Amino acid sequence: MEIITDPPQRALVVTPHPDDCEGGCGGTISRWVREAGTQVVVVLCTDGGKGTSDRRRSPPRLAALRAKEQLAASSVLGAVETVMLGHPDGGLEDGPLFRSQLVREIRRHRPEAIFCIDPYRTTTHTHRDHRMSGQVALDAAFTYAWSYLHFPEQIAQEGLQPHRVREAFLWGTESPDAYVDISNYLEAKADSLLSHVSQFPDPQGRRARVGTAAAETGKAAGLPFAEGFRRIRFELDTAAWRYLHA
Ligand SMILES: [Zn+2]
């Protein structure tokens, strides 16, 4: 168990639906942007067009509304850019298109750290888009983005360069091992989350739950309020890495 004290200069957040990243790492992002000057890019994978139980809503209209809500939430977080990939809600696939899109964003923004949902669970289940987004984000960073030989058209035709991500922070994990104290950022987290107005019919109740959940998470780290992650450090100190970065 560790308390994270070394924020990255650049981070890329891969969120399957509007509102997932705010709930998972909104306090940490808010803190790092404000205190460490971390440059944060949010990559929204789906359009969130099926995120309702209201039969009167049509997916295209809901997607348009949720895009606006995401921009408002990203503004609260302090993100420098929000990239919307526009996959259909519930239709995210681990295929060449989605992989190439995440590799492209990693190569464009060159983050030291990525944030994504932990795709691997053993005792609970999660939304298919959550699994797909987490798995492809990790593969994009660890398998593809650093190699000239993967998606070489991005290098030959788009002027991008390979990039090696240093580490990943996985939210929604069953086994957090790294924590960030968000005691001063509960309001920012709640404000970013509640920017997704269409998703929260009881905003005051949801705001209160942000605090109770952060207090519960903090117990494991001896912090009053925290977000917890599984932290994966990529194996950078290898011969191949030194060769690529010589
Ligand atoms: Zn979601």
Characteristic terms for this protein:
binds zinc ion; 246 residues; alpha/beta; Rossmann fold; 42% helix; single chain; 8 helices; eight-stranded mixed β-sheet; 8 strands
What would you note in describing this structure?
With 246 residues, the chain is of the alpha/beta class. It has one domain (7-244): Rossmann fold, CATH 3.40.50.10320. The chain is 42% helix and 18% strand. The protein contains eight helices and eight strands, in the order ββαβαβαβααββααβα. It has helices at residues 20-36, 59-77, 96-109, 128-144, 152-156, 186-194, 203-219, 239-244; strands at 2-3, 10-15, 39-46, 81-87, 113-117, 167-171, 178-181, 226-233. The chain has an eight-stranded mixed beta sheet with strand order 1-7-8-6-5-2-3-4, with helices on both faces. α2 (59-77) links the parallel β3 and β4. α3 (96-109) crosses α4 (128-144). The radius of gyration is 18 Å and the shape is globular. Zinc ion (ZN) binds next to loops. Residues 16-17, 20, 127, 130 line the site of zinc ion (ZN).
Summarize the structure.
This protein is of the alpha/beta class and 246 residues long. It contains 8 helices and 8 strands; from the N terminus they run ββαβαβαβααββααβα.
User: pLDDT under 50 segments (min length 5)?
Assistant: none
**Termini separation:** 33 Å
Strand content: 15-25%
Strand order in space, largest sheet: 1-7-8-6-5-2-3-4
Number of domains: 1
**Nearest-angstrom radius of gyration?**
18 Å
